[in-house]
Amino acid sequence: MTKQPKQHVAIFSPPFLDLILEGRKTIEGRFSKVRCAPFGVVKEGDTVLMKDSGGPVRGSFIVAKVESFENLSSEKLKDLEIRYSVPLCADADPQYWEKRRACRYATLLHIAQSRPFEQPFPFPKKDRRGWVVLDKPILDTTHGGA
What is the mean pLDDT for each group of 10 consecutive residues in the chain (146 residues)? Predict the structure, then answer.
């Protein structure tokens, strides 16, 4: 039995959400010091709802492919930097790679079908998590609705 795709809410700092909606950022990278979502929980075919930090959910994308890395070494991080800086739009933040030097886990999400919502909507969240796995879908993605 095939599992139903899940929905996730990802929190974005500027300018990365806009770069996805513009089609310039084709991979979303999530790095962490500890094992936490989306590492190990996001799958190909899942829907990621994109929320501005402190703002509304403004769009979504489908996960086309997931690459996960654990026990990151400085050599592996350098390899990821060389291979993925352009699709991650890492140059949008001059400190992008430096901020990730102490991270042990990385999840790279290849983006498909990104789209803005005509009607952005609030998603109440009071904690500091940058990624939320939803127990129940909050959006009907089968009919393209938002």
Answer: 84 97 98 97 97 96 98 97 98 97 98 96 90 90 50
Taking alpha carbons only, the member of 60, 38, 52, 42 closest to residue 139 is 60
Contact 63, 112 (CB under 8 A): yes
Helices (H), 89-128: none
Residues 6+ apart with CB under 8 A from 117: 57, 58, 59, 60, 146
H runs (alpha helix) in 15-146? 16-21, 74-88
What is the token pair recorded at 111?
A: 């983006």
pLDDT of residue 144: 47
Q: How far apart are CA 53 and CA 128, in angstroms?
A: 10
Q: What angle do CA 44, 45, 48 make, to 5 degrees?
A: 100
Structure token digits, residue 114 = 């990104």
